[in-house]
Amino acid sequence: MKPLYRLFFFLLIFPATGSYARVGTPPDTLYPVRGFCIAAPVPARLDEFVQFIRSELAPRKINTLVLRVDFNYRFESHPELRDSLALSRSEVRKLVRTCREAGIRVVPQINLLGHQSWASKTNNLLAKYPEFDETPHVMMPAKYAWPNADGLYCKSYCPLHPGVHKVVFELVDEICDAFEASDFHAGMDEVFYLGDDKCPRCGGRDKAELFAGEVALIRNHLSLKNRKLWIWGDRLLDGKTTGLGMWEASMNQTHRAIDLIPKDVMICDWHYERPDPTPVLFAMKGLDVITCPWRNPGNAVRQSEDMARFRANATPEMRTHFQGMMQTVWSDAGNFLDEYYGRKKADSPNTASNCFRTLFPAP
User: Fold this and answer.
1) pLDDT of residue 238
2) What is the pLDDT of residue 30?
3) I need a surface site. Which of 239, 283, 340, 350 has the fewest CB within 10 A?
4) Buried b vs exposed e over 337-352: b needs ≥16 C-beta within 10 Å?
5) Cross-strand bridge partners of residue 107
6) Domain that includes residue 322, residue range
7) Spatial CA neighbour of 350 closest among 290, 277, 299, 274
8) In angstroms, what CA-CA distances link 229 with 65, 110, 155, 359?
């Protein structure tokens, strides 16, 4: 058994013990990153969201807010890509000012590469620029179902299309300027369509090299203005060897990109069904990593305990890579606020709001 796999085996068989292992009492560790990730609010819910920042995020010492903006902004560089209801520059300034007063860094996100469609809907980029589609031969269904014959989960843009990055980077630059951001989240999770055999540009190419090349290209563009790239970590994990499967890890050979991407990319490592200890792998590869739970409070506690234990027991060289915890929310901001404040009744205690309260208890 290789040394790295022995380490994973040890962590899985021998869970945390001692003070960090008391379920229900996550360690009160001030991680470098105490994060919260959610879709940016629509204009009608902005004031309520701003109050949530002041009354809920700030008292819990949340210091990082990842906002999934995508096309919920009135882009000037590409107005054709705006959502019908989108935040104005002045509304973004209000949000940024609130976060600055609370000591919270804002990291805007636009999904790049993957997630260019959802269910039966093509998202704005490919709807307006269909020539960027990696798989134009795959038609969007009138009624979406999984699994399906095309293996369609979400569309991707072709990373080798000669025109795609001019558009993409204009969006990235504008959104980073609007949010006064030193960091940008490119998403890049759950990329199933990449190096498609029918693509005239990248068909037959190594998928790990294609993925790593796109990461490096985005990272290098951001670095021109001293900005840092964040991505989700699932495509960098070997889904077969680890048993993590095709959602939380890669089954299409992109995992080897973990050895090819620049080392200054921030990895957001998400696991929602089990508290898998994969931050160790990213740290051992020299990458900074944040653990990201969603809606299972028990798992979030275990993940927080692990992160604290890794930081407490690691060498100085490794310790700096274990950056902390970030709660993720996968509904829109309005639905989350309704759930959080009890206006929407949950069918289970496993909710994003309960997970957040458990992970970051109120003072």
Assistant:
1) 98
2) 77
3) 350
4) bbbbeeeeeeeeeebb
5) 66
6) 32-359
7) 299
8) 15, 12, 22, 25
Is 14 contained in some domain?
A: no
CATH number assigned to the domain comprising residue 235: 3.20.20.80
Give domain status of residue 1, yes or no. no
How far is the CA of 220 from the CAs of 214, 224, 249, in angstroms? Answer: 10, 7, 25
DSSP string, 13-50: HS---GGGG-TT-------SEEEEEEEPPPGGGHHHHH
Pick the closest to residue 214 from 195, 242, 199, 238 (CA basis). 195
Q: Answer yes or no: is 16 within a domain.
A: no
Under a CB-based contact definition with an 8 Å cutoff, are residues 247 and 234 in contact? Answer: yes
Strands 64-68 and 33-39, sheet pairing:
parallel
Q: For residue 244, give the nearest of 138, 236, 72 by alpha carbon.
A: 236
Task: Give the whole-angstrom CA distance, residue 354 versus residue 18.
Answer: 25
15 is a domain residue: no
- CA dist 233 → 70, 112, 121, 335 (Å): 19, 14, 25, 26
Profile the chain (363 residues) by mean pLDDT over runs of 10 residues: 44 38 49 97 98 98 98 98 97 98 98 98 98 98 96 98 98 98 98 98 97 98 98 98 97 98 98 96 98 97 95 94 98 96 92 97 93
* Total domains in the fold of the chain: 1
Element (DSSP H or E) covering residue 186: strand 183-187
The type of residue at 185 is: H
**Separation between Cα atoms, residue 107 and residue 228, nearest integer Å:** 10
Which residues have CB under 8 Å from 174's CB, separation 6+? Answer: 73, 75, 76, 77
Radius of gyration of the chain (CA): 20
**pTM across the whole model:** 0.93
